[in-house]
Amino acid sequence: MKKLLSILIVPLFIIFFMEVFCLMGHTSPGMMGYTGGGVACTSNCPHTIDLSPAANADEYSIYYNGSAWASFDVSNGLESGDLNAFSRTKTGSDTLYKNANIPSNATITVAYKTDKCNGSTTGTIYSYITGQKSATPAAIASVSDYKTIRGTIVGGANNNNITTTQVSWSLVNPVNGTSYQSPSLVGLIQEIVNLGSTVTDIRLFTDDHNGRTASNVLFAWYSYSQSSSNKSVLHIEYTTP
After folding, report:
1. Which residues in the chain belong to E strands, given as ranges?
2. Are 26 and 39 spatial neighbours (Cβ–Cβ below 8 Å)?
3. What is the pLDDT of residues 85-98, one digit of tens each?
4. How do strand 69-71 and strand 59-64 relate by DSSP bridges?
5. What is the residue extent of each domain of the chain?
6. What number of other Cβ atoms are within 10 A of residue 221's Cβ?
7. What's the half-sphere exposure (Cβ side, CA atoms, 13 Å) at 152?
């Protein structure tokens, strides 16, 4: 009987110590495909990043006042939609999401942004999310800069600097203090990655420069300068070969 118990117990101890060894960062012989914390991924490796603006200069907002495009003070927040009561129509904003460092061979699997509402309104806001077609975008410092990048919809010369991919975002009756997640931005972010160089930062425009939203219906959300703890967040998941 003692001999039988020793035959059974010894293999169990061996298995136990092998699993402890694996949990310390080594591949388990009984868990094919599992990679512990001490072993670098070598194929189809997953990555998750959350990006945000890092300074006041990383955001810019403009609107149409009936005769010209003008800038809006982002310390009061960011906007998309219409606020005709204050002569602000076709409003829109850009955010520069910093320190992405996504390699050019990445495959984007999940992408969306989250904005926290800082003012209530009733109605549907019809926005487009558009990217700047650059892996190394610089801060926008003027209405002229904004026009050059965003393109003909705001009086720019051409649309050479924006992504072909645009994502429509219809937001109904946003509530103050509530965070809202955009539709999937996978195709848009992938288009930027496919430019062929490491993506250091990502610029996204969220706007109704087309004027699709009804009068005095607006989505306003926190800017970095208004509340850095409530700033916009761009969530991205991707794999690398």
Report:
1. 45-51, 59-64, 69-71, 78-83, 88-97, 107-119, 124-132, 162-172, 179-181, 202-207, 218-221, 233-240
2. yes
3. 999 999 999 999 99
4. antiparallel
5. 1-40, 45-240
6. 26
7. 3
